[in-house]
TrEMBL record:
This enzyme's EC code(s): 2.4.2.14
Keywords carried by this UniProt record: Glutamine amidotransferase, Glycosyltransferase, Magnesium, Metal-binding, Purine biosynthesis, Transferase
Cofactor note text: Binds 1 Mg(2+) ion per subunit.
Name by which UniProt lists this protein: Amidophosphoribosyltransferase
Pathway: Purine metabolism; IMP biosynthesis via de novo pathway; N(1)-(5-phospho-D-ribosyl)glycinamide from 5-phospho-alpha-D-ribose 1-diphosphate: step 1/2
Summary of the function given for this chain in its UniProt record: Catalyzes the formation of phosphoribosylamine from phosphoribosylpyrophosphate (PRPP) and glutamine.
Classification via InterPro entries: GATase_2_dom, Ntn_hydrolases_N, PRTase-like, PRTase_dom, PurF, PurF_N
Family to which the UniProt record says this protein belongs: In the C-terminal section; belongs to the purine/pyrimidine phosphoribosyltransferase family.
Enzyme class: transferase
Alphabetical list of Pfam families matching this protein: GATase_6 (PF13522)
């Protein structure tokens, strides 16, 4: 299918309209989505529910599960937390079958209606297909307009639906070839799960922006999901990370690992290690908690606080970094802030009074801990700065002598286009203020950030290919790929040589160490096949 361009000015206008509709929570960074799939289990839907529960941190706007019952797909989905959507046990009971895929959503593209809750499902005359997507397509608007001009009718405003249209319009003869053709048209960040009557398919973008892993149950059934934490919850053993450009097919015969492109690179989103992923997850061999501790320790060296008395981490994602900072300095790591675990989400309110009250509902200062202390407040990031200001005020009202804010990541200067809901510089404090201006606005006694170099060293990705293997574009402006429909939104930064875009990869990346790939044998057709029996000898 020929893909025609759209005028960049029109794209920029649409992006601005979309941004105005985007809700922003008090953390100012909205989670990715979480996906989970299993094949060959009598309790497939129930197992998917448990897996999604471990991924609830990645999306809290909606949830859904689609099951495969003897070749017929059945869908249950709704708005809210997973436990709300499936509060009635009958909804899980309705999902009979031996395979399932599931999704927890935070919207990166599209509106917030139930029509955008995934997994999406379509009924063709010859087959059903269900799809779950984690990420954001950077050429979605161009593709959607071209598809609509050719007669396509979309049921949602989500960019995820585009792949289904591309699959159906392909002239290839087999489903796998249709899927490969479609995957080579879309751009950006994507981890896809597709369920058909005959198999479960998983595909990762050529840059591996999003985490994606394969696990195996003791009985031999394969799992594909967003994080290893979901494997641990259901008792599955980690097998391997899905590699960039790979297409996995799982059916009754086992797992076949193919690729839809050989032009790949490794650019894991560094924000997964900084903020999004669970601390008990491991991404490409790097445990998230340990990486965050190393970030905190590096921060203590780069941005010391000479007269500090205690270290306080902002719950929950900053607690690991705070522990690293405290260990490196020998300072007490105190619980100076307590989070109300029963507040699911709190969105920014229209007035300052309501915004501050929303933060106070989520966090409380422990007065007896912080009173008369010089506090090092460790957080993972500053995006808008609103929450940081409220927390600094809270600690000082609780009696803190001084509050020195230390951020275990670099300054967030540029937007994300690969899956994080932050696609404009308008609300990025680091893009619009000097360091001193930022310090004044959050009312801290001092403010310091981790450098990009030390962030990369702290993550310590076992990779020796070209580049770092990480995406740090939000901090340094070096985007690892073109951003297509979003290019106009960064034109001012490009003109000032603050931002640049690498071309799409033309070579195959080579990781230094992927232990789970050592014993895999490439077959004559270029694929890797693992049968459905439990794999032995995988490290």
């Amino acid at each position: 299918m020929a893909i025609k361009g759209i005028e960049q000015q029109q794209i920029a206008q649409r992006l601005a309209q979309q941004t105005e509709k985007t809700r922003v929570n008090v953390r100012s960074l909205n989670e990715e989505c979480g996906i989970f799939g299993v094949w060959g289990r009598q309790d497939a839907a129930q197992l998917t529910y448990y897996g999604l529960h471990a991924l609830q941190h990645r999306g809290q706007e909606g949830a859904g599960i689609v099951s495969n019952n003897n070749g017929h797909l059945w869908q249950e989905r709704g708005l809210g937390l997973l436990s709300d959507v499936f509060r009635d046990p009958a909804r899980i009971d309705a999902l009979a079958g031996t395979a399932a895929i599931g999704h927890v959503r935070y919207a990166t593209a599209g509106s917030h209606g139930v029509e955008n809750i995934q997994p999406l499902m379509v009924n063709f005359h010859d087959m059903q297909i269900s799809l779950a997507h984690n990420g954001n397509l950077t050429n979605a608007m161009s593709l959607r307009e071209d598809l609509e001009e050719e007669g396509a009718i979309f049921q949602s405003s989500s960019d995820s639906e585009i792949l289904l249209h591309l699959i159906r319009r392909s002239k290839a003869t087999t489903f796998v070839d249709k899927l490969k053709e479609a995957l080579n048209i879309v751009r950006g960040g994507f981890a896809y799960l597709l369920l058909t009557p005959h198999g479960l398919y998983a595909a990762l973008d050529p840059h591996a922006f999003r985490p994606f892993v394969v696990g195996q149950m003791p009985e031999g059934n394969y799992i594909v999901t967003s994080e290893t934490a979901a494997l641990d919850v259901i008792g599955a053993r980690f097998v391997r990370d899905v590699q960039p450009g790979e297409l996995l097919a799982i059916d009754d015969d086992g797992l076949t690992i193919d690729s839809y492109t050989r032009n790949t690179a490794l650019h894991i989103d560094s924000m997964e290690y900084i903020y999004f992923a669970r601390p008990d997850s491991t991404i490409y061999g790097v445990n998230v908690h340990k990486a965050r501790k190393r970030m905190g320790a590096a921060l203590a060296v780069e941005q010391p606080v000479p007269d500090a008395d205690i270290v306080v981490g902002v719950p929950n994602s900053s607690l690991s970094a705070a522990a690293g900072f405290a260990e490196a300095t020998g300072l007490p790591n105190e619980m100076g802030l307590v989070k109300n675990q029963y507040i699911a989400r709190t969105f920014i309110e229209p007035t300052q009074d309501k915004r501050e009250r929303a933060v106070r509902m989520k966090l409380s200062a422990v007065k007896d801990v912080v009173r008369d202390k010089n506090v090092v407040l460790v957080d993972d990031s500053i995006v808008r700065g609103t929450t940081s200001m409220f927390i600094v005020r809270m600690l000082k009202e609780a009696g803190a002598k001084s509050v020195h804010v230390r951020i275990a990541s670099p300054i967030f200067k540029f937007p994300s286009f690969y899956g994080i809901d932050m696609q404009t510089t308008k609300e990025l404090m680091g893009a619009n203020n000097t360091l001193e201006e930022m310090r004044e606005k959050i009312e801290a006694d001092s403010l310091g950030f981790l450098s990009v170099d030390q962030l990369v060293k702290a993550i310590d990705l076992p990779y020796d290919g070209q580049g770092t293997g990480l995406t740090t574009a939000y901090f340094d402006g070096h985007y690892p790929s073109p951003i297509y429909d979003y290019t106009a939104s960064l034109s001012n930064f490009v003109a000032k040589d603050l931002v640049d875009f690498a071309p799409e990869p033309m070579t195959i990346y080579h990781p230094r160490q992927v232990a789970s790939l050592r014993n895999e044998e490439t077959l004559a057709d270029g694929t890797i096949h693992l049968d459905s029996q439990t794999i032995q000898g995988v490290e």
